[in-house]
């Protein structure tokens, strides 16, 4: 399969002032594209190049896993963001999940920020569905819930390249802004509706 850079689902300046065009540009054009280019080089003419991205994530290890997972994680991250996003979700299955499993949006937000702050070093914070229940899951480096069987619903990239230009060392501020202004609840809702019962 010919791996291509998935298009951004919004203009690079569309998330400003909550995520600047410069942050989106560098994160997408340098980091995301860089992982994809490195994956293509790593695969070369290998038969593994015929696999889907998901198959590569599940079936590879070492550097190839890191590159494939980073491409997958970044595709998922961009879809997790939207202009005018964040704040409590509208009434519906996502709002019901937050109420049932976290006690509502503000408690979800609190836990999201704390889990993100406690993820030492680089990684991600995910909202996943595991055994039918919503769970906030931190993963280190390139690790992804796809490889563990949990259903990913939402992700925040907490590598420094995701926030340093806009918030310097204030990861907490980035995570708060993510919850208040950036979450694409429609994407979460679509992932939830496709999750196995
Ligand atoms: Fe990233």
Under the CATH scheme, which class of the largest domain?
A: Alpha Beta
Give the count of structural domains.
2
What is the rounded distance between the termini?
30 Å
Strand order of the largest sheet: 2-1-3
Structural class designation = mainly alpha
So, the CATH homologous superfamily of the largest domain?
A: Iron/manganese superoxide dismutase, C-terminal domain
Number of strands: 3
- Using only C-alpha atoms, the radius of gyration works out to 16 Å
CATH topology title of the largest domain: minor pseudopilin epsh fold
Structure description:
The protein is mainly alpha-helical. It has two domains: 59 residues, Helix Hairpins (Orthogonal Bundle), CATH 1.10.287; 102 residues, Iron/manganese superoxide dismutase, C-terminal domain (minor pseudopilin epsh fold, 3-Layer(bab) Sandwich), CATH 3.55.40.20. Strands 2-1-3 form a three-stranded antiparallel beta sheet. A hairpin with a 2-residue loop joins β1 and β2. α2 packs across α3, α4 crosses α5 and α5 runs antiparallel to α7. The model has no long low-confidence stretch (mean pLDDT 95). Bound molecules: fe (ii) ion (FE2). The site of fe (ii) ion has 7 residues, from α1.
